[in-house]
Amino acid sequence: MIGILLSVVCGITLGIFFEIPFLIEYADPLSELGLCLLLFFIGVDIGFSKDVMSNLKKMSKKVLLLPFIGIIGSLIGGYVASFFPGLPAKECIAVAGGMGWYSFSAIELGQIDPYLGGVALLTNVFRELLAIVFVPLVAKKIGSYESVAMCGATAMDSVLPIINKSNPPRISIIAFYSGLVISVAVPIMLPALIRIFGWQ
User: What gap in Å lies between CA 151 and CA 128, rounded to an integer?
Assistant: First the structure.
């Protein structure tokens, strides 16, 4: 997390105080390359997890709906949030569609508007931070599934140790499954939202 924040601060500093022609000219291609590498390594992680499918077969069918309910809830939450900061509903929904995946959402929405990309980055970073803080409380006071759903895409990686510590052991595979499905869905859903909202 510190590395991410330092990267953002360094990027802002370079943009304000230095004009480096190479970075200005190749910002978009380099961002796309970084995004492709990110997706590649998620695929590698999925490939290494040999037991995921066999464990999923043992789950209740209702549990399989968890990531989709989480996605719908996040998009509705984005719409509701548009009433508070005064941002257009479509921008709030698109930012919420990042589902905690700050790097992807920031790159995708930043190509439309750098300001919107910055909002997406900060919103989804804060979603991850809040999940790390509140997962134990939600798991204890509300429920295990709710503690997984609030994490979005981060349920399969950075927040997984917190989920594992705060819930029964069987919840970890559910969290991995939920984060995996959402991580696969976001690169499809976010560009689709961009087209639906007429940005491309």
Answer: 7
pLDDT along the chain (200 residues), means of 10: 66 76 74 70 64 64 88 95 84 94 89 89 90 91 93 86 83 87 93 86
Structure token pair of residue 7: 């990267």
Asked if 123 contacts 129 with a C-beta cutoff of 8 angstroms, the reply is: no
**Cα separation, 31 vs 161, whole angstroms:** 29
Give this prediction's pTM.
Answer: 0.74
User: What SS3 state is found at 18?
Assistant: coil
CA dist 101 and 121 (Å) reads 8
Q: Which long-range contacts (CB under 8 A, 24 or more apart) does 192-196 make?
A: 193/90, 193/93, 193/94, 193/97, 194/94, 194/108, 194/109, 194/112
Q: Which amino acid is at 45?
A: D
φ/ψ of residue 167, rounded to 5: -130, 165
| Residue 117 DSSP class | H
Which run of H or E residues covers position 122?
helix 114-141
Residue closest to 182 by CA, chosen among 68, 95, 103: 68
- Residue ranges per structural domain of the chain: 50-196
